[in-house]
Design brief:
This protein is an alpha+beta fold. 32% of the residues lie in helices and 33% in strands. It has one domain: Gcn5-related N-acetyltransferase (GNAT) (Aminopeptidase, 3-Layer(aba) Sandwich), CATH 3.40.630.30. The chain contains 5 helices and 6 strands, in the order H-H-H-E-E-E-H-E-H-E-E. The protein has a 6-stranded mixed beta sheet with strand order 1-2-3-4-6-5. Strand 3 (60-68), helix 4 and strand 4 form a beta-alpha-beta unit. Helix 1 runs antiparallel to helix 2 (16-25). The radius of gyration is 14 Å and the shape is globular. Bound molecules: coenzyme A (COA).
């Protein structure tokens, strides 16, 4: 999962050392993930992407991670992971899902119905767009 996240983030051309240090800092310990809504897309038993949605707070789940390995970008994996995350968030009782959008992925999220909600400072000191979707109960 760490390798996929690093490769996906690096796909946008960010400084390699910064990306490595960010990926190394991700807490992917079994203790944390066992209680989380994290899921992997696999092809022939090999992980090719993953996503994680956090438990709802004030009715909204945060989509914390969404990464597709570069060789698989553009093949529909990201949309499947996004829709799965939204479905999980809905089943957890959330009425909305929000996320901090990578600037290069704004078009992808807009394509999936994401709306721009506000901006926030990221851990890299960038002003990023917070996007969201409303989740209609099924
Ligand atoms: C962003 C990301 C998750 C998208 O996943 P993907 O599997 O490549 O996306 P899909 O193939 O499901 O694309 C779905 C639609 O969005 C469009 N799309 C995909 N990436 C796009 C982008 N960066 N900008 C604009 N449109 C995009 C596709 O053309 C497709 O449109 P269509 O339905 O008209 O054919 C993937 O590119 C990725 O992991 N990127 C690197 C890491 C990253 O930015 N993660 C997001 C962190 S917030």
């Amino acid at each position: 999962m760490r390798e996929i996240a690093a490769a996906a983030k690096g796909h946008w051309g960010y400084d390699a050392a910064l990306v490595r240090s960010w990926a190394a800092s991700l807490d992917l310990s079994p203790g944390r993930l066992s209680g989380a809504e994290a899921f992997v897309a696999d092809a022939d038993g090999r992980a090719i992407g993953w996503a994680e949605v956090l438990p709802p707070e004030d009715g909204a789940c945060v989509l914390e991670h969404l990464w597709v390995e570069p060789a698989r970008i553009g093949a529909g994996i990201g949309s499947q992971l996004f829709r799965h995350a939204a479905g999980r968030a809905r089943r957890l009782g959330a009425t909305a899902m929000e996320w901090e959008a990578e600037p290069n992925a704004l078009g992808f999220y807009a394509r999936l119905g994401g709306r721009r909600l506000r901006t926030a400072m990221s851990e890299w000191g960038r002003e990023l767009t917070i996007m969201g979707v409303v989740l209609v109960p099924s």
